[in-house]
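Backbone-to-sequence.
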């Protein structure tokens, strides 16, 4: 009798047992997968993004709307959650804009500012009513962008907001869903 003829049934049996073992072990595992790194409880279905109020001493009247809409759009586009107005949504975001300031970023050798910096700070609370319920309370997020000090904030503000607001929203999203 050929020695390979004896081994062939044994190899099949071992392969079968390994396959069954892996299937049983992995069958009990729950894997949360997302292409963007977001980790969302499988039971979560709804999110409520409340209007982010502007309480900064200096402010842009449209900033609240921009931050709120950008956060809502990112969550809806990059998760399977649906927006709701239900007070008992699975996830809830609320917050305020607490800072909107312009400062000197760099000074020339003649004590004149070479560049200025617009800094926006928001304070966000993330409530999880499902799963591990580990949200965060009153987390501060701040982002800045520099501009030529020879220009006024009004001249460069649209460009600066296009840079700052998405970065703020990314920070909030990552803190809520990627635990960064």
């Amino acid at each position: 009798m050929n020695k390979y003829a004896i081994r062939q049934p044994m190899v099949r049996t071992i392969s079968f047992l390994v396959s069954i073992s892996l299937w049983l072990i992995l069958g009990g595992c729950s894997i949360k997968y997302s292409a963007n790194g977001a980790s969302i409880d499988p039971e979560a279905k709804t999110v409520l993004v409340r209007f982010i109020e502007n309480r900064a001493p200096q402010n842009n009247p449209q900033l609240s709307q921009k931050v709120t809409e950008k956060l809502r759009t990112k969550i809806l586009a990059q998760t399977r959650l649906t927006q709701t107005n239900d007070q008992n949504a699975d996830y809830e975001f609320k917050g305020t804009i607490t800072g909107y300031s312009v400062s000197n970023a760099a000074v020339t050798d003649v004590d004149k500012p070479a560049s200025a910096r617009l800094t926006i700070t928001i304070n966000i609370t993330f409530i999880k009513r499902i799963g591990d319920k580990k949200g965060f309370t009153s987390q501060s997020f701040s982002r800045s962008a520099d501009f030529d000090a020879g220009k006024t904030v009004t001249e460069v503000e649209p460009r600066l907001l296009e840079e700052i607001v998405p970065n703020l929203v990314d920070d909030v999203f990552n803190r809520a869903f990627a635990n960064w």
